[in-house]
Protein 1
Amino acid sequence: MNQKPKETGLAGVCEVITASMGLHFPVDRWNMLTRNLTMAAAEFGFQHFDEFTHWLLSSDLEKEQIKILASYLTISETYFWREEPVFSALTNYILPELIALKKNGEKSIRIWSAGCSTGEEAYSLAIALHRTIPDIKDWQIMILGTDMNPKALIKAESGIYSRWSFRNCPVWLKANYFHHLGNGNYEVLPKIKNMVTFSNLNLTDNSFPSLTNNIYAMDIIFCRNVLMYFTDEWISKISQNLFHSLNPDGWFVVSSCELNSQRFSQFRAVNFPGAVLYQKSDKKFKSFKVVPAFGYNHDLPLPGPVVRPETSETKYPVFIPEILPEPVQVSSILWATENDLTVKPEPEVVSVTEPIEAISLKIRFLANKGDLSEALLLCNEGIESDKLAIGLYFLRSSILQELGQTSEAVASVKQAIYLDPDFIMGHFVLGNISLQEGKLRQAKKYLTNVLDLLSSCADDEILPESEGLSAKYMLEIILPNMQKLTLL
Ligand SMILES: C[S@@+](CC[C@H](N)C(=O)[O-])C[C@H]1O[C@@H](n2cnc3c(N)ncnc32)[C@H](O)[C@@H]1O
């Protein structure tokens, strides 16, 4: 139940929000909070912001009202196969181990995507299982996606996504597991859709583990990019409940930016190539050997022994069905010259009112909602205030591509490359666009640039603006496709 807020005004409203849904709004996010509350006020039937906040401060919100409010205050940003190294750890190590442990007993696997937003994470998990378990029909698979935002869940249940949800995901994923509906929309195939169920759950409800909502004895829990918006107090309570919802030896996965050895001290951190996952266990994971920390997150203080998978081969062979690569959407790389740029960025930083990360989050939020024009406007404003923000040029190019404005998208990527000629994702995207346009010679140039730049990266180096793609993985995407198209 909500406690009566001690504060008044926006500070008081923040207390109400924290008490009812865990979310923490520091003062530097109050502009955004005010904007979102103003939109929510209209749905609650209030014309004036002050009347709405007064009402929020003076009433005990009901569950349905919290859900509505949540749909305005939460960030629903998500996409398929987010943070590739996590999915590699899953398909190469964790699932094979789990399958081997369970194959002679009850063949069941239970996975929970807590804070699943519009469902891309839950379906990615289903795809990972489908690729890893050869006799999947003999298994009882439960993949549960839960979220507090009812609008996000409606989209999740539809299983229909625009190209935006496939940004940064491997090319085979859309080709093998989705059906093109036209108009740039793709529907997840029934064999994957049937593996996933969705339900509404507020993580602050203290309603798990519980048999009544089927949240107990999970083998794996993904709770990524959710707790980062919560207060420390809620993170501690919820992570305790998540811990108790796992089977012994079960896995708990947060995003790489949420890793924190103190917050999640009840778990053991296990280091995989490019990713750290938490395990509920005191024992050593049998197929891994203890080695010093390596790779990703060197600075991360890891509790207890750091273990890493054996580098040679996993104990159990991984079944990966043949993948159907999409025609490599790589295009020509013209090294960007000053003349290529329609607008030359000024080499000077104008004062920024909000950090670029916050602006970029908002832009993604808008794009995620399908509000591409608004996203583009905000992106342009962001670039205006920080003309060196490579990420924003890159993000703008994705939005422009989505809007079908390819030449503008190309110009935006070239601006990013102008700022950093070694910007690998920029060359990659230009290569992709050239391929889509059938300009093979140009595609070859851009992709060759990518190969050259990758040759000076460590295998597990995460490429900037790639949302977790490692250099090695990028190579695996590009090489076969370049060979196929005789671009090498
Ligand atoms: C940024 S999305 C993360 C989606 C996905 N896990 C990923 O990493 O791609 C965060 C989601 O957490 C949900 N969320 C926030 N607070 C919540 C709460 N108290 N209970 C349940 N879900 C919550 C939001 O509705 C939103 O859909």
Note: Residues 84-309 form a domain with the Rossmann fold fold (CATH 3.40.50.150).
Protein 2
Amino acid sequence: MKRVLNKILEKKQTYTNLPLFQFMRDSSLTEEERMAFYPCMAHFILSFSDINKYMLREEPATDAYQQRVNIHTYEDDHHWPWYLEDFTKLGFDRLCSPTSWMRFLWSDETRQNRILTYRLATLISNANAIERIAVIEAIEETGNVLFSTMLSLAKAIEARRGIQLRYCGEFHFSLESGHSVGSDRDEIAEIPMDESNQVRCLAIVDEVFALFEAWTNELLHYAKH
Ligand SMILES: [Fe+2]
């Protein structure tokens, strides 16, 4: 798996410099302006729990790799309530009526959020347990970029307003290891795979990053308009 992890790190370097993250680091804007993309990611963030529960997890696990996947899903399937908690605290509940909000969530403007969920579901359902670990590793690294960039914005807002942002801030970040829960990078690197498995994993990594890139562009477009 080492080659796959190296590819993920290469991809992560490009991902870190995408326009959304440059926007989030732009100190000429207020922290709130840099967090304006937040409502736009609702569909995916809430769907991500389902991806863990109903797509990645398979009980009972048929091998040790699927067991690892399962352990990871029990951590990652319950972060979404903190997203909603911060949604309220950041003042987005006042945005619009429930019907307008649903129209928005299923509009063309947010299609990359939904495509991300549906494509990940397809990738995962066609993947064996080792390939699922590659999916998780790629997702975790994209998450690490988002959460580490959001952390300083959250800290500034928390200090100024005297609130705790559990999703955007330290509370959540400390639970996001950037890797499969319960495994470190070295352990994952040691996972043996044959040639065809490796080719498939490398293609999976490409697709996961491409999907997340399109997603970040959608979030940025929303933040700016
Ligand atoms: Fe999370």
Note: The pocket of fe (ii) ion is lined by residues 76, 79, 172, 176 (CB under 6 Å).
Protein 3
Amino acid sequence: MSADDFRSNGYAVIDWIAEYLENPAAWPVLPALKPGDLRAQLPTAPPANPEEFAAIFADFEKLVVPATTHWNHPGFMAYFANSSTAAGILGEALAATLNVNAMLWRTGPAATELEQVTLDWLRQLLGLPDPLFGTINDTASSSTLYALAAARELHPELRIREEGMSARAELPRLTVYCSEEAHSSVAKAVMTLGLGLSNLRRIGTDAGMRMETRLLDEAIRRDRADGAFPLAVVATVGTTSTTAVDPVPAIASICEREKIWLHVDAAYAGSAAILPELRHILDGCERADSIVVNPHKWLFTPVDCSALFTRRPDLLRRAFQHTPDYLVVGDGDEAVNLMDYGVSLGRRFRALKLWFVLRHFGSDAIASLIRAHIALAGCLCRWIDGEPDWERMADAPFSTVVFRHRPPGMDAGALDAHNAAILERVNGKREVFLSHTRVRGAYALRIAIGNIQTDETHVRRAWELLRNEGSRTVY
Ligand SMILES: Cc1ncc(COP(=O)(O)O)c(C=O)c1O
């Protein structure tokens, strides 16, 4: 593509993005699509000859966009809603342009150092202690996997790096602890690391869905008595289902006493610690060995961007450093080589978009945006609490509200089916996208406010649709 063609095609793309960001609600939040519909419209083999950019772009508009679930839509309130903001998009474009592969400091000095600087800014914004070493991964799932891999290296006498874990009769059973409400990424990490799901202890929770430290303590004692080797505890600040906050200070005390690695999963809610009034949600995290916060969830940064902080970069490196000859270079001890802190050799320049976002907004504006989301969730809570046939199923400390319609005379099974039907019908209108969860086994509706364009009109509309369908759906 010539520079002139690049300019004209690029301007067209930027124009499209600008229009899209101005009004993402021009598209339905959910596409009207069945699995396989898009594939059926696409050629099964790649083109042998070049195609005009205009034709490719036209297919993007005609085929791809209508087959997209629009996370940028202000009516997107499912899972943990997020935002791809203009500053982040431009940062991504420039990262793709520079196309550095920051495996070594030498192959990406700017990418490496900007990652350290940007994560140190984020650390300060979250009120986390100095020093704390940070790296950016694709997702919280990878960050948690890496944290648990580092936890194994806290005990070099286990010789896992050298000898692995199979066919070793002398190796004790290594156990990991998290609450019943912890994200499935903890289980996946345990599976991936060969620790085995049967060695993941899912600790019971209190009425607020927070890990019961008494039960954690008991489980660790029981495991030790049985000859097991408690390896790590994963506490959650902002659980996926109801955004509960585990009692990290008490968990940290247990981990310190027992010499167990403490990893904190604050993938969603961690960003809220930017608000001075919510700084306390990360209390105790200064004593954690590692903590994950996802700027791609609630910090207005495009997917993917997950920040893993650790007090023990030496152990993260011990878990992952393995350098072939061709990557041995003489840049000295000062040089951080990002390839040493995870599975992948190559690293994208992810810090660029986060740096753009943090500078473009500034921390005061970011705090105001998050505060506004929390206030919107507060409005929704009041509307729900004001209706006798609706009930909240959990506290809403952040921007996520979990609730259900509870008309009189329905048993538990009927209530589950009734609420599932409400959700199906509301989502079927493709104006808003909501998701569900289960609270102590009961089906619950869930609204998560996190998109930069979501305002009261969208939340009000979602509530109106739910109430309409609630009164209409009959069993
Ligand atoms: C608390 C928590 N941890 C981890 C994850 C996994 O995030 P990722 O998609 O970045 O792996 C999620 C996803 O929503 C989450 O809610």
Note: The first helix runs from residue 3 to 22.
Protein 4
Amino acid sequence: MQSRTKAEYSDKEVEALINKEHLRQLLGLELIPSENYVSREVLNAMGSIFTNKYSEGYPGKRYYGGQDNTDAVEQLAIDRAKALFRADHANVQPHSGAPANIAVYQAWLEPGDTVMAMKLDQGGHLTHGQPITSSAKLYNFVRYGMKDVETGEIDYDQMLVVAKKTKPKIILAGFSGYPRTLDYRKFVEIGQQVGAILMADMAHLAGLIAAGELENPLDVGFHIMTSTTHKTLRGPRGGIILSMGEVSNPLKAPSKTINNLPTLIDREVFPGFQGGPHEHTIAAKAVAFYEAAQPEFKLYARQVLANAQILAQELMNNGFKLVTNGTDNHLIQIDMMKSYKIDGRQAQEILDIIGLSANCNAIPNDQLPPYRPSGLRIGTPAITTRGLKEQDMAQIVIWMKEAIRYRNDRKKLNILTKEVQDFAKNFPLPSDL
Ligand SMILES: Cc1ncc(COP(=O)(O)O)c(C=O)c1O
């Protein structure tokens, strides 16, 4: 089959790889919950000539000339992000989610200070203090986690005990692998009792929050929300930092107060941590924020959640053991060892053969190492963008089950691959429309 990517390159090696990747995306189904497909408009903005421009600083306060259009596009992205998430301030410059989190830590903490974050095997992200990261070398991370892994309920009593003992300066809500709902009000109560600021890393949930389908932590007392822009938010690869407080001149060092968080953060992103912003990506973020404010995006977010409910149910009906026995959001963690006595990496590799992309992931109390963990993480943001609905979830589960059952039968795997491809072709990539 011919790729529909029409762009011609004199560099034939890169052109061939782009076309191959296009076909892989078109003929497969993306189940990795942190991935999505952007619109043609987002893609075009990202590929625009804003990439030619250096614009160190912030709108109206740049270090180089020629900034009329970069100022306007960045201000548009800022205004749209603030409106979408009801934040006092938005910094749209972080190159991705990890730099956004690091900038917040550096804006508020001194080396050796304590941050309280979710246990890593229960869903916390690498940037929430995984020992090999730079943040974990600078700051002291303490943990909260589930009271019961069968329901996923967080042990808030224990969280308070640990917080009183360790006096964190930041309490961080957020995850990349937790399929249940956090009680943000309880986080705020605990933060108030110990004098910590409240930070939400909503990289996974941002699109569902923007659509009004999930609660916005900033509405209930959180001070800061970081996010990637490329997951459920369906924008370019990038990061944002939203905060509450007053914005003052970023050129002047403010005192370290909660009210000054926006300026402290701005100064930490630039010049503290990054150099010139990527205005082409910021233009694409502005487009994504515009799209996320449209009524169709609300329907999309609702469908993501509806699909996840059915997918989880179908999986459980077919012998898959889910961590916390279900999901409240867009992601599902499967205990593959308990389900089919294979590890998560084996499952990922088997599904890859037939064109279903998923990723292996640690699960609570995992007995296996991180590179070959017991869990497999899947989700519905990308397949919902392609247009899949509730009735398609059962078919995905059948393919997963058959691929695992016939994993040593090349002929059967070829048949399954063809079935997935024939199905996927009916759902074009949005950037091809
Ligand atoms: C919760 C969370 N925070 C931060 C990140 C880091 O984002 P990036 O990979 O864009 O740096 C991720 C990425 O998966 C994430 O899930």
Note: The pocket of pyridoxal-5'-phosphate is lined by residues 34, 96-98, 101, 125, 127, 174-176, 201, 203-204, 228 (CB under 6 Å).
